[in-house]
Amino acid sequence: MIATASIIAAIATLGAIGTASTLMLRIAETKSRELTEKIDIITLIDDLLPQTQCGECGHMGCKPYAAAIAQGEAINRCPPGGDATIAALANLLDKPIAPLDGIAKPDRVAFIREAECIGCTKCIQACPVDAIVGAAKLMHTVIADECTGCDLCLEPCPVDCIDMLPIERAPQPAHYRMRFIAHNARIEREARERELQRSERANRIEKKVEAQAAAEKLAAAEPASPAVKSRQDEIRAAIARAKAKKSAVRIQPPIDTTGNDNAH
Ligand code: SF4
Ligand code: SF4
Ligand code: SF4
């Protein structure tokens, strides 16, 4: 009777565990589906943004703004996209069209007045799509086809030699996005390489210090050979003689230079 009750209890426990597992699996599946849907909607929103990566929406690029829109942020904060982007986003998200929050920006391209450029490289560091070529102390130039017209190189230029010129061209958001991804990958790779070099240099120094300490320890522990010992004894004796001589000189009475004869 007791055995039957135990079996029933065990079956009930197993059943409860099974139900709980199924429930957890369903929750995990739902969360994963929600996450996938969220990622999908971010991608769909991002596809409608101009990809200049200018940051005028208040985000560090178009993808972060897409993620913010997916979380409920307003759809009217992209000046390069203007009304066309707002309309596309409103259509995708089934939201009302709102007026642009900012001033619409026509397409433009950066142009460096090369004669005035001092080659400081600050614009290169600011460009999110690596559209500027040049080297330190040499004049720089913009690859017009790669420039998104984001304006980000203007502010850092210390001699104000960059103009933004209006341009008529077909939008190429996919190309800009690809350039931006490549730019970020380069920055990350360079940071990793710098970190690797720094750690290799630190390791080399550490090994050198350790080797030096080990050599000093060994030298202190090793008994000197008879020849070296005899030489050390000679040096010690010479130092002692020199010290004794020096003390003897120091205790000599002063020489009387007055000419007085004090003997009487
Ligand atoms: S292009 Fe628009 S979405 Fe992209 S960073 Fe600039 S303002 Fe933001
Ligand atoms: S060259 Fe200047 S305006 Fe053109 S993409 Fe680079 S930072 Fe932006
Ligand atoms: S920031 Fe201005 S001065 Fe410096 S390299 Fe670029 S264009 Fe030349």
Give a structural overview.
- The protein is mostly helical and 264 residues long.
- Among the domains are: 31-105, no CATH class; 108-171, Alpha-Beta Plaits (2-Layer Sandwich).
- It is 55% helix and 5% strand.
- The protein has six helices and four strands.
- One iron/sulfur cluster (SF4) binds next to helix 4.
Q: Give the overall silhouette.
A: flat
Give the averaged pLDDT, no decimals.
Answer: 87
Helix content, binned percent: 55-70%
Poorly predicted parts = 259-264
- Given the helix and strand composition, which structural class is it? mainly alpha
Number of helices: 6
Could you give the order of the helices and strands?
A: HHHEHEEEHH
Report the C-alpha radius of gyration, rounded.
40 Å
Strand order of the largest sheet: 1-4
Main β-sheet description? 2 strands, antiparallel
Cofactors, ions, other ligands: iron/sulfur cluster
Strand proportion, as a percent range, falls in 5-15%
The count of strands amounts to 4
Distance between the termini: 138 Å
What's the topology here?
Blueprint: H1 2-47, H2 62-70, H3 82-93, E1 108-112, H4 122-126, E2 132-133, E3 141-142, E4 162-166, H5 173-221, H6 226-250
Antiparallel strand pairs: 1-4, 2-3
Helix pairs in contact: 1-2
The protein binds iron/sulfur cluster (3 copies).
Offer a concise description of the structure.
By secondary structure, the protein is mainly alpha-helical. Helices cover 55% and strands 5% of the residues. The chain has helices at 2-47, 62-70, 82-93, 122-126, 173-221, 226-250; strands spanning 108-112, 132-133, 141-142, 162-166.
